[in-house]
Amino acid sequence: MVKEIESVELEKKLSAKEVFYLLDIRSDAEVVHGMLPSSAHLPMHLIPVRMNEFPKDREIVLYCRSGARSYHACMYLMQQGFNNVTNLKGGIIDWARNRFEIVAYA
């Protein structure tokens, strides 16, 4: 089963400067509208060829638009031996609904 985190809890972790890897797996076209602060971007379809770059020593939090794609990406990473992956429940939609910061894609 995939571990999930609510937007409110994730925002607290970011504010507390906790160390984890935050990954936006939406498409290039989606991220131009903004991303969560401190997040890296890698479109979902590139995960299989780039997952060797992911940190194994800290939590990886994935998000997408609604939380569905990132949930499946978490399942995939767990099957590949990543034990510390978390899905942002509700994705960036829920994040925005809570009026948390969205930054420009750099």
Description:
The protein is an alpha/beta fold and 106 residues long. The chain has one domain: 3-Layer(aba) Sandwich (Oxidized Rhodanese, domain 1), CATH 3.40.250.10. The chain has 5 helices and 5 strands. It has helices at 7-15, 28-31, 47-50, 68-79, 91-97; strands at residues 3-5, 21-24, 40-41, 60-63, 85-88. The model has no long low-confidence stretch (mean pLDDT 96).
The major sheet is characterized as: 5 strands, parallel
CATH topology: Oxidized Rhodanese, domain 1
Beta-strand content estimate = 15-25%
**Parts with pLDDT < 50 across at least 5 consecutive residues:** none
The count of domains is 1
Fraction of helical residues: 25-40%
CATH architecture: 3-Layer(aba) Sandwich
Mean pLDDT: 96
Q: Give the CATH level 1 class.
A: Alpha Beta
Q: What string, H for helix and E for strand, traces the elements in order?
A: EHEHEHEHEH
Supply the CATH superfamily name: Rhodanese-like domain
Shape: globular
Rg, nearest Å: 12 Å
Secondary-structure-based class equals: alpha/beta
Number of strands: 5
Q: Count up the helices.
A: 5
Distance between the termini: 33 Å
The strand order across the widest sheet is 1-5-4-2-3
